[in-house]
From TrEMBL:
It holds the Pfam family Glyco_trans_1_4. SUPFAM superfamilies: UDP-Glycosyltransferase/glycogen phosphorylase. This is Glycosyltransferase family 4 protein.
Length: 392
């Protein structure tokens, strides 16, 4: 089978962001099934494209809002309004229709397309709609945008999120209806889309990398009782961080040391706790996570899957997690406590930290979790590819 993987950003050699990690693992899983896979999309500045011999680059784009100037954001918004599309899909219009047609021709005759997330496929729906396809919904984008609107800082921001949500609902519904099969990254998302029919949809349990994780170190050096790490400029992540700082942190014992890694941005948090440390960007995310006795997974919004949750479980670390943070997890490890209210979360953290100090909470071997997730991922990939190859 020969397919073209159509994506806003091409998979990279050394993925860092959640989107890049998911892309690389999904592409690896498809290629493992023996599929001849061509890749079509934009490259990220400074990033080395994975499988470059099979990649067809539409151009280079930095599409991150946090790094864009006010003028660039305004241009994206104007283009979105002019084309009755979302800001994220407006960014994809830079290459032009001709470049898309050239890329598909360069890929050669294919048996179908894998449309990776909504951004690029929704920018050129009439072109990609000529092919049978599998649609990968990394998130339920319309729902994420709607949730973000409820937490918007200004009226204008709230209106923009609601505009995005309305358009995204239409675009995602169309992509799901046109696709032969739909992959989501969590079971919850599968039921939030129009493709909830089990015969033509499945969720992909992810890992953060294809190779198994290392065995747990016997002498893990702990520097902090509790740790959090994330891309806090993303609104859905920031909602969880603010909830943790505003509602959970005041309920924690004053003796607990709390480290938060990742650039937070504005508005700066005003939480007060004697053990709180805002570290900003850290040199190595995994080293930081290993240095924390317990990990707080405090997602409160968003859809899709939390890659930091998966990474924590692959490393076998004790954690306290909200149900939102456990999206896409088939089996929760035994050293993870689920809690959704601030009181329950704070109590679980205090108990986990106390147990850790006494040596009661041991690190698990995350290789078992990784192997189970990867096996389930392969099974879901097989089901989708079989449906795409059928005449149904």
């Amino acid at each position: 089978m020969k397919l073209a993987f159509v994506t806003s950003l091409l998979p990279v050699q050394d993925p860092v962001t959640g989107f890049d990690l998911a892309n690389r693992v999904i592409v690896d899983a498809i290629r493992e099934r023996g599929v001849d896979l061509k890749l079509i999309g934009y490259s990220s500045p400074g990033a080395e494209v994975a499988y470059s011999d099979d990649a067809i680059v539409l151009g280079e784009q930095d599409i991150t809002n946090a790094r864009a100037s006010a003028a660039q954001k305004a241009r994206w918004l104007l283009q979105a309004v002019a084309n009755n599309t979302t800001v994220s899909s407006a960014k994809m219009l830079a290459c032009g229709r001709g470049k898309i047609e050239e890329a598909l021709a360069a890929a050669g005759p294919v048996d179908g397309l894998i449309l990776n997330s909504v951004q690029l496929p929704a920018a050129y729906p009439d072109i990609f709609g000529r092919y049978k396809s599998i649609f990968i919904a990394h998130n339920v984008e319309w729902l994420s945008a709607f949730q973000n609107s409820a937490h918007a800082a200004t009226r204008m921001e709230r209106q923009l999120y609601r505009r995005e949500s309305s358009i995204l609902k239409r675009l995602e519904d169309e992509l799901c209806r046109q696709a032969r099969f739909v992959w989501t990254l969590s079971e919850e998302d599968r039921h939030s889309l129009v493709a909830a029919d089990a015969s033509r949809s499945a969720f992909l349990p992810l890992v953060t990398r294809f190779d198994p994780p290392d065995a747990p170190a016997a002498d893990r050096k702990v520097e902090y009782d509790l740790g959090m790490i994330g891309s806090w400029s993303w609104q859905s992540n920031r909602i969880g961080l603010d909830w943790f700082l505003d509602e959970v942190t005041p309920k924690l014992p004053q003796t607990v040391s709390i480290a938060i890694a990742g650039q937070i941005g504005q508005p700066a948090p005003d939480a007060e706790h004697p053990g709180l440390r805002l570290l900003g960007r850290v040199p190595d995310a995994r080293d930081f996570v290993r240095s924390c006795a317990v990990i707080a997974l405090a997602s409160r919004a968003g859809t899709g899957v939390q890659l930091k949750t998966i990474e924590t479980f692959e490393m076998g670390l004790p954690a306290v997690a909200t149900s939102s943070a456990l999206r896409g997890i088939a089996d929760t490890p035994s050293n993870v406590v689920a809690a959704d209210t601030a009181d329950a979360f704070a109590q679980a953290v205090a108990e986990q930290v106390e147990a850790s100090r006494k040596g009661g909470f041991k690190t698990l071997d995350g290789r078992e979790f990784h192997a189970d997730q990867r096996r389930r991922l392969g099974e879901a990939i097989d089901v989708g590819l079989k449906r795409l190859d059928s005449n149904e």
